[in-house]
Amino acid sequence: MPEKRVTVASKVGLHARPAATVAKAAAAQPVAVNIAKAGGDPVAAGSVLNLMTLAAGFGDEVIISAEGEGAEAAVEAIAELVATDLDA
């Protein structure tokens, strides 16, 4: 199962607008994408509520994972968003 560790770049973390952007992109992937804070339980990245409940703040490390055909590309796409300041 591909996974990637990235640092949350948005100044407000994965809250509100950044969470909505990430959730929309995750839901559009051909496989289910999960995200977890280091040491925490993974949640479905396609849900804004799950992302906000994760409480991942600016500078926190998260682990993005997916399984199935197209998982590597899905993980890369979501990792790129999380590593971008979506509030800029």
CA radius of gyration is 11 Å
Strands, count: 4
Give the spatial strand order of the biggest sheet: 1-4-2-3
Q: How far apart, in Å, are the first and last alpha carbons?
A: 32 Å
Can you tell me the CATH superfamily? HPr-like
Summarize the helix and strand pattern as letters: EHEEHEH
Report the CATH architecture: 2-Layer Sandwich
Could you name the ranges where pLDDT drops below 50 across 5 or more consecutive residues? none
Averaged pLDDT: 96
Class by helix and strand content? alpha+beta
Number of domains: 1
Shape descriptor reads globular
Estimate percent helicity. 25-40%
Strand content: 15-25%
Query: How many alpha or pi helices?
Result: 3
Subcellular location: Cytoplasm
Protein name: Phosphocarrier protein HPr
Main location: cytoplasm
Organism: Amycolatopsis azurea DSM 43854
Q: Which keywords apply here?
A:
88 residues; alpha+beta; Histidine-containing Protein, Chain: A; four-stranded antiparallel sheet; 3 helices; 4 strands; 34% helix; globular
Write the layout of secondary structure elements.
Blueprint: E1 3-7, H1 17-27, E2 33-37, E3 43-44, H2 48-54, E4 61-66, H3 71-82
Antiparallel strand pairs: 1-4, 2-3, 2-4
GO cellular component, one term: cytoplasm
Organism: Amycolatopsis azurea DSM 43854
Subcellular location: Cytoplasm
